[in-house]
Known about the structure:
172 residues; globular
Amino acid sequence: MNKIIVIGSPGSGKSVFSRELNRITGIPLYHLDMINWRDDKTTIPRERFIEEIKKIGATDRWIIDGNYDSTMELRMSLCDTVFFLDYPTDVCYEGIMQRRGTDRPDMPWVESDDGIDEEFVKFVLQYNTVNRPVVMERLQRYSDREIHIFKNRAEASAFLDGINGINITRRG
């Protein structure tokens, strides 16, 4: 477990899980939202985004947090471990609503507490019917990876608690 991706619907807690995994293991953490987005809510050019992912992927140890379907195949080909937070829609919807107006280390801006991005909400509400089947198919194709699928936050927490009790050698 040295090259890790953490995926799942927005609001599932990918960044929180990734930060805790980073804290326990010392493996460097990269948030795709921080790579892709500028603080003025514009994105970097797609080619640069892909190059940044390849640069990270060429290193020995990393955790990459985020979905970004356009680079999912690349990240799956580079990783040795996948964590899929496969939570119910209502849990993820609640997650995106709770984080509005909060400063987060995985985003270059604070999501406004007033007004809702209807397109983003629609994406979250349709994730399990539209995106999840694609993710499951990819996981089948990359079944040689270490794959962890958590159905709820308790399962993810139990995993983290379990590895937290193990003597993990941190490498810089």
